[in-house]
Write a structure and sequence with these properties.
globular, alpha+beta, Biotin--[acetyl-CoA-carboxylase] ligase, 236 residues, ATP-binding, SH3 type barrels, BPL_C, BirA Bifunctional Protein, domain 2, 5 helices, 2 domains, single chain, BPL_LPL_catalytic, nucleotide-binding, five-stranded antiparallel β-sheet, binds biotinyl-5-AMP
Length: 236
């Protein structure tokens, strides 16, 4: 199968957000187009949160046109990031649903956005050589802090595109296998967590990640399926 992710690459010095840029050009570019920017002036997380994106990190978005909008696309990004980090000798795990953590801190975040029948945008932020600002240092980390030397961004991007291509195919053809791998890579399973879903805070044990991408929790003996939310780990 032809490799679609990265067949067209748009590189920018500065942009508001690669996800926003990708949405603006979606009608004019082929599926698999990748937008990469050296820095973002308005990098975004979920629910309008900020994503700090100075020079030195990898900030990118992939334009995809899958048959339908599927929330499991986020795991294509997470698995590809975990594999990319492993290529550079960094062990990491998936914090359901959209973070990758290494050494107890967040190294990458993924933001998927889609419009049914039109497009899906897979946005990935990966801290590579960028300095983490003071206020995030407790919870965020860059690859360079593990490797001790700066990494060539193009080499990191090359590995990431390679793994994205592979996992995107698995996503399209065998989403059950994609989810099996996510379960293997998820580090929250079996742990006490608090999930914030909208205004609700739900505390319990994270039992499993189901094939539809949702999180199965044990809340005082009751099973509950959480479709999407923010997870924080609790320590007793
Ligand atoms: C995410 O949101 O983790 C998704 C981040 C997606 C960023 C990429 S970069 C390319 C593309 N273009 C965009 O504009 N976005 C995507 P969320 O789960 O809401 O986490 C946001 C939180 O992560 C913030 O509130 C901070 O606490 C923290 N954070 C911000 N910048 C960070 C960084 N560089 N590294 C680690 N944590 C960070």
């Amino acid at each position: 199968m032809e490799r679609i992710i990265g067949r067209k690459l748009i590189t920018l010095d500065e942009v508001d957000s690669t996800n926003e840029y990708a949405k603006r050009i979606v009608q004019d570019v082929p599926e698999g187009t990748v937008v990469v920017a050296k820095r973002q002036t308005a990098g975004r997380g979920r629910r309008g949160r900020n994503w700090t994106s100075p020079e030195g990190g990898l900030w990118m978005s992939v334009v995809l046109k899958p048959p339908r909008v599927d929330p499991r696309l986020v795991f294509v990004g997470a698995l590809a990031v975990v594999d990319t980090l492993a290529d550079f000798g960094i062990e990491s795990g998936i914090k359901w649903p959209n973070d990758v953590w290494a050494g107890g801190r967040k190294i990458s975040g993924i933001l998927t956005e889609g419009k049914a029948g039109e497009y899906s945008i897979l946005g990935i932020g990966l801290n590579v050589n960028n300095v983490i600002p003071e206020e995030l240092r407790e919870n965020a980390v860059s690859m360079v802090q593990f490797t001790g030397r700066e990494l060539p961004l193009d080499a990191v991007l090359e590995r990431l595109l390679f793994h994205l291509g592979g996992w995107y195919r698995v996503f399209l053809e065998r989403p059950d296998l994609l989810m099996a791998k996510v379960r293997e890579r998820a580090f929250i399973l079996g742990k006490a967590v608090t999930v914030t879903e909208g205004d609700e805070r739900i505390s319990g044990i994270a039992l499993d990640i189901l094939d539809d991408g949702s999180l199965l929790m044990d809340i005082d003996g009751q099973l509950r399926r959480i479709l999407y939310g923010d997870v924080s780990l609790r320590f007793f």
